[in-house]
Design goal:
Heat Shock Protein 90; alpha/beta; Rossmann fold; 5-stranded parallel beta sheet; elongated; 10% strand
Length: 734
């Protein structure tokens, strides 16, 4: 995809002065131009680390200077980089953001460019091929209206490339002919002409007209070698090697392969791979050229017939030896070609594994986003309950809804990333099926009231209630499916049905889970795409918003169970989703997990009344105040500590009933502080109040001496339950 994006970046960089906003100062323009130049230069030579750095700075400066054009450029470059490093989700987000900015400016040239780059992004995936063609056509239509033949020429290059890659050769030839006609009427950049010649070569190669393909590709080798046009050279010599191989020219095939690897090595170096954490094939071509030299030493022999026969015999032996060496060398060339193709496949597999690195990045970002979200959700909740602000109740509800929606999106994107990186495994812990289903139905009580729906549950009595497995992942699957059903159903019914299918000799209970609704149903042409990421169907129930990730998460989670989701639906006849998984009976005495224990804890919040004193440890002043105000509502006294060091000192001086401990703090973090407090106080309850990713740190947190965990942002009722659960019974008001 990069070679297709590269030519467009060059075109627009040269036109930056024409497109830059006119209301900013000259030194600001110079700053923006310098940043985009540096990012582009790094991008062109595959230095993605610096390209990302300069693009990020450019976003900040563009916002500061209110320059939408350079903001568009920055997001567009980031979209290209992340797409090329196999992060399709993040690449799509950045590229769509770029197009969103372009549409907001109402500048046709930017909209055409943004549409084009999204088309290029989508063109690399057969599943999104139709979207790619749609965006190509949108960009072409705009540029035809603008009569921008230079841009049209470049678009034709990319569209023809896409058609060839998808074996639509007639369409490719039509587009190439249009581009050729432009070059006959208008002076075109010589580099761009080379791309058209390359594509004609690829086209002839694809339709197996090898003579024309060879002629076309050979005609541009001298120019690309003289100018060292790396990306173009890679494509030309790769195609030439294949054409020579198919026309039984092994020596030329090998020489072309040498050229191909020379340019490939020039573009992709090990140092840049380590800096950008992107795997690329490392070519270590070992030359094994054998020069066949036929040495025929002519000597003067006598004119006798015997001498002539001896010479003829020697010549014949040398010729036979020459043929033997030729065929052996030919076979070696072919073996080289096969070996390097296999190395490319292995390198590609290694590159895909590096996507796991992105999971760590998303975990860090999710923590940084959850922390301010805790403040937004907490403050909006408290203000909404203030009777003095009754007139603003609807606005505060909208604010809290938006924050909740953003939190759901963060959690779902993080979960998708972890599953793509194979960082999620099913746990094995005891749970009760009826408690799990009850918790799920209870979570939708408000939604049911809003949409006037009814939820029906039916569980086969032959399914054991005491199970061992992963209740969290099973809950996520059911929550997404039930939420999806309620999303599209209004004043109707939703059924959750569990039926036992069979019982194995090993004690596995194969169970079918069915979630059915009597809503409007799903059109046949949408039943496949709804399982794609960020895909939604038109929803008449506008009070419910979604991220478009729910069904994609369900599909990926079921892979962990070696199961698949099945859909039955028709317009006006409702929808039915079902899947089958093996449930494992818990033959040992049931023990509640931490999550279930917290849910079953005494919910009588009046027990908090009385002389209770809680220490709140958090380096964020806003979060301190929110937690303190919540405790004030229950008449609980609280003190504040700004970091772990201060928390240890205050715990030595004063007696607290409980400590709420943040984890990520300066000086001494929450876990280190807990270890130090446990040295002089073994009994005081310590609860982690944190936004860190629990899947990665839960064990480390509990091993530090912390009794329980509350994850930010939290539900206030659950917050109070966990506090009540951890305060010793003799200290609670009876």
């Amino acid at each position: 995809m990069k070679i297709k994006r590269f030519i467009f970046i060059l075109f627009f960089v040269f036109n930056i002065p024409l497109l830059t906003a006119q209301n900013i100062l000259d030194h600001q323009k110079d700053t923006l131009r310098s940043l985009i130049d540096q990012s582009n230069r790094a991008y062109e030579v595959y230095n993605y680390k610096d390209a990302i750095k300069y693009a990020s700075i450019l976003i900040d400066k563009s916002r500061e200077y209110h320059d939408d054009y350079h903001s568009f450029l920055a997001y567009d470059i980031l979209g290209g980089i992340y797409s090329e490093t196999d992060d399709s989700v993040q690449g799509r987000i950045f590229s769509e953001k770029a197009l969103e900015i372009a549409r907001a400016t109402k500048v046709d040239s930017l909209i055409a460019w943004g549409s084009l780059n999204l088309a290029i992004l989508y063109s690399d995936n057969k599943k999104t091929y139709d979207k790619a063609i749609h965006f190509f056509k949108e960009s072409i239509a705009i540029n035809e209206r603008l009569k921008d033949v230079d841009q049209l020429y470049l678009i034709y290059i990319s569209l023809a490339w896409t058609y060839i890659d998808n074996q639509q050769f007639q369409e490719a030839h039509t587009i190439l002919s249009k581009a050729d006609s432009i070059s006959e009427k208008k002076k075109i950049d010589p580099l761009n002409k080379l791309y058209i010649e390359l594509l004609f070569g690829k086209y002839y190669h694809a339709i197996k007209d090898y003579d024309l393909a060879k002629k076309q590709l050979e005609s541009i080798t001298e120019e690309i070698d003289n100018d060292s046009i790396t990306d173009l050279a890679i494509e030309v010599y790769n195609n030439l090697a294949e054409v020579y191989y198919k026309t039984d020219e092994p020596k030329n095939a090998f020489l072309s392969l040498e050229k191909y690897n020379h340019y490939k090595q020039k573009a992709y170096t090990l140092e840049k791979i380590e800096e950008t954490e992107k795997a690329r094939a490392k070519f270590d071509l070992k030359q094994a050229q054998n020069d066949l030299r036929t040495v025929i030493n002519e000597k003067e022999y006598s004119d006798t017939l015997t001498a002539i026969l001896i010479v003829a015999t020697i010549i014949l032996i040398i010729a036979l030896l020459g043929f033997f060496l030729f065929f052996r060398t030919r076979r070696r060339y072919i073996d080289h070609l096969k070996n390097y193709n296999e190395e490319l496949i292995v390198a590609k597999e290694k590159a895909e594994k590096l996507s796991k690195v992105q999971t760590k990045f998303l975990s860090t970002v999710s923590h940084e986003l959850r922390t301010p979200l805790y403040g937004v959700i907490g403050i909006s909740t408290l203000l909404k309950e203030d009777p003095k602000l009754k007139a603003y109740e609807e606005d505060l509800e909208s604010l809290k809804f938006s924050a909740d929606y953003l939190l759901a999106l963060i959690n779902e994107v993080l979960l998708i990333s972890k599953m793509d990186a194979e960082a999620i495994k099913l746990s094995k812990k005891p749970y009760k099926l009826d408690s799990l289903i009850h918790s799920i139905t209870r979570s939708f009580e408000y939604s049911l009231q809003q949409s006037n729906n009814k939820l029906h549950v039916q569980i086969d009595k032959n399914i054991p209630n005491s199970l061992i497995g992963d209740p969290v992942r099973l809950s996520q699957i059911l929550m997404n499916l039930v939420g999806n059903a309620l999303k599209f159903t209004k004043e109707g019914n939703v059924w959750i049905t569990l039926n036992l299918i069979s019982v194995s000799k090993k004690g596995s209970y194969k169970t079918r889970f069915t979630i059915k609704d009597d809503g409007p149903g799903i059109p046949i042409d949408k039943q496949e795409v709804i399982f794609h990421e960020f895909t939604q169907v038109e929803n008449a129930n506008h009070s419910y918003k979604g991220t478009g990730l729910g069904l994609a998460i369900v599909k990926k989670l079921l892979k962990l169970y070696n199961s698949k989701i099945h859909l039955k639906s028709a317009p006006e006849h409702g929808s039915e989703f079902n899947f089958s998984i093996n449930l494992k009976k818990n033959d040992h005495q049931y023990e509640e997990s931490d999550d279930e224990t917290s849910k079953s804890a005494d919910t009588d919040d009046t027990k908090l009344s009385g002389d209770k004193h809680i220490l709140i440890v958090d380096d964020n002043k806003i979060n301190q105040k929110i937690t303190q105000k919540i405790l004030d509502k229950y008449n609980v006294k609280s003190s504040l500590a700004d970091d772990g060091k201060q928390a240890v000192e205050m715990s030595r001086l004063y007696k607290y009933d409980l400590i709420l401990m943040d984890i990520n703090m300066p000086k001494i973090n929450g876990m280190e502080a807990a270890v130090m407090i446990r040295e002089f106080d073994k009994n005081i309850p310590i609860i982690a109040l944190t936004a860190v990713e629990l899947d990665e740190m839960r064990v480390e947190i509990t091993n530090s001496g912390i009794n329980d965990i509350i994850h930010k942002p939290y539900d206030r009722s659950e917050f109070i339950k966990i506090i009540i659960k951890n305060i010793p019974a003799e200290k609670l008001t009876l």
